[in-house]
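Hi U.,

Before I forget, here's the chain from the pilot set. I'm dumping it here mostly so it's searchable later in email.
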Amino acid sequence: SSRRRHTRCREVSWARRCVQETGIEKVKKTTHEAHNVFSYKSWRDVSGHFRLDTSQAKTKEFVTLDLTYDIHFANDGTGDDFNRERKEFKEKNKRDVHQCYTEEFRINGFENQFMVQISYTPPPLFGLYYYIIFSLLSFHAVYKMYVDGCCHNQDFQVQKVISTRNDLYREEVQKDYAYYDHRITYGGQTMMFYPTK
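Structure:
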């Protein structure tokens, strides 16, 4: 299993689209589009200790990990920078009365669900080959119920902080993040993982 979690750089972006309604049928026509990425100096993973739940290993073969993520600001200064740049972006690209604005916080490569095998052997009739067979026989829903019965769910939130003003890996700020140790516990064993800067 990998010792790395979702630790690559994240993108915070804004997009704005301006439209006009033309003609009798009021067809919408895009008159202007813009996109911008918020630039920050440093980021850090603060997800903390992850413990894979293997308590049902005797009756379930897999854990389905349902992942979410949260990206927040390391300090008030970063929040001020974000709000200022967002305001400037909106005002600069305000070209028409009708507008559409979107904002996205994204972790590159993030996937919101994983299946982790916790038993020594997979259950019978499990795998892509059997999935195709059941689907060809129109038993897709039945096969899904079977797979769901082999799994139990576990939730976990991946958390990141970003800063526009400070290097979050400086020696003098390490103590502020000492609580967020980068450990993964699985099957009674604990290992360290090392986020990529």
